[in-house]
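Batch manifest, entry 17 of 40.
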Amino acid sequence: MTTTTASTPTAEDDELPGPHRADDAGDVFDRDVLPAPPGATAALLRSLLAPLKARAAVTALLLLLQQAAVQVGPLLVAYAIDSAVPAFRDHRYGPLIAVAVGYLLCGLLSGGLQFAFVETSVRVSQDVLLDLRGRIFRHAQALSIDFHERYTSGRLISRSTTDVESLRELLNDGLQELVTVVLSFVYISALLLWLDLGLGAVAVASFVPLYLLIRMYQRRAGRVFRERSTAIAAVIVKFVETMNGIRPVRAFRREAVNDGEFAVLNRRLERTNGDALLEMARYVVGSRLVANTAVAGIVLWGAYRVATGSLELGVLAAAVLYLRRLYDPIDRLGMFLNSYQSAAASLEKIAGLLAQTPSVPEPSVPRELPPLKGDFPGREVVFDQVRFGYRTGGEVLPRFDLTLPAGQTVAVVGATGAGKSTLAKLLARFYDPSGGRVLLDGVDVRELAVPELRRGVVMVTQEAFLFSGTVADNIAIGRPDASREDIEQAAKAIGAHEFISALPDGYDTDVRKRGGRISAGQRQLVAFARALLADPAVLILDEATSSLDIPGERAVQRAMATVLRGRTAMVIAHRLSTVEIADRVLVMEHGRIVEDGHPAELVAGPGRFADLHRAWRDSLA
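Output type: structure tokens
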């Protein structure tokens, strides 16, 4: 018998961090925060734009030329009033015709350049978003299991949809508004100063209070939009969680409770939306007040100067047109700031997600497993002084030693929280031990690249998750190059061929989302066939027969007795009927092995397994 010492853990093995309490709004919002390192947001944006520098430069040049063509119009009006119209009265028609043709050409040029700008800018923005969505998806898949158990799928969905959409609005519309306002300010300020120094100086000075107003809006709106982005994510999380668990929701009549919890989150989103609109309203009212005051003052002063003869009427007319063009985009600038604050909050959250590093990293210098020994594909598994604890509490495995000889099938039993599933997850390297090593034929699993490890170790879980697609596709996930004959042989070996053949399209039947077209037991059989087709050296079955009825379980056991021969197998089981195929049984309690032996020997003995076996037999009577 092999034993180890252990202290009682404060967190059960199978009790990992669960769903958040939706009625605890503060907790929901704290869980959503993944702080981005200093400079990470700007670095992310630079990396997204770096491959598109040339096209971005062309886009900027097109907008620069387009704005130049637009700003020529008031100059032509000034020339027409002060020169072309008086010439027309003297029967000289050339200047007025030149003004008309010039105005028409400027309009056509401006329209053409605007079209070219929109076309190129849309392509640039779509390439940025394509890259960003791909990064989020790839990075989320690369992150370790413990991250996904803490950070729900609803939040990942929010990062790749709502937050990316905020960036899309900024790139497609907001940036054009910003650049247009900036270019208008530069062009118009220079032209006003050239036309009349006094008018130009007053117009430029009026932007000082506008700048201060914009800075104040940025500070206040930044906080509001970060809260809004988090509120949106919380609503999505609750919605996804409820819809994914709709069966237990209906079974336990949680509709009213969920409705109350959702109402809390929904009201918080409503409040943050209201705060955002209020900040926008404050900015718009303030900016219009400054703009209207400045225009009125400039027009009155300019009119006085025209009356006294110190300013030409055409210059005043051009100045008024320029001032209108200068101040009209102020409201649109507010919309840009709105989009900018929303996108900045979203990009910060995305940068925080992309800054997360896997807790189970790839080795810097990966090793390969040694060649298999003998005629059977099994490998030796060793847990060498392994220590491990989840984030939720104390150590589940204070110090654990175990050797599984190559080709041995070992069943691990024990109460919930004993540490059974932890062994499986450490062997599959879903987690890394906090101390000690897990060895596969003498090689630390942390030194194996993921593809190498997955070829050697395959795990079948209680979930039996199937992807949308055909039955054949789901069986071949571990071996995409497998032939139809190989797929069918794997299904026959596990006892799944008969029910698959009875499906409407046989192996080509679409199982639909999460395999909803077939029963739970049938999904489990497909998962077994998938694992067997992958032909691993080590097979882990974590409660893998729990969804099967008694006849189905018996059929699987008969198939497994043949298929597992020669392989190393770890079978985690609550149903003791599963252990009958095992060469060896380990009974665990509080992270230590309290019994170790052949099933028949332990049943005949006075220990815990014998008690468990008798209780199981009585439950069948």
